[in-house]
Amino acid sequence: MSYIDGYVIAVPAANKDKFEAHAQLGDSVFIDLGALRVMECWADDVPEGKQTDFRRAVQATADEEIVFSWVEWPDKATRDAAYAIMTGWMTNPETADPRMDPVTNPMPFDGKRMIFGGFTPLVVLERP
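Request: output the structure for the sequence above.
Response:
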């Protein structure tokens, strides 16, 4: 069964091009390590909620836009093996993929406010 990683981040609107370049490079690592699909989605119709919403969830400021992203993996084992390589720059730089190094590919957003998690699909409907 597939496995999904989901992300919500606030990106300064002025950094949209930088974010796209960062994602193109970083997301290529996901694909090279077995991801089936990566989607990076720039906010277009993100309403303000009465109790909570995407903007409040990541403490977005007036000059930031919301990015909603997900990575589809064939299974959790593939994802876990990929993450060991992708995050290796923190624990084992010799085996890390340099495209994920924050020094050479810095995040054009505040990563401390990123919301992320891994999910097992529960209901999947697709067109034949």
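Residues 3-119 form a domain with the Alpha-Beta Plaits fold (CATH 3.30.70.100).
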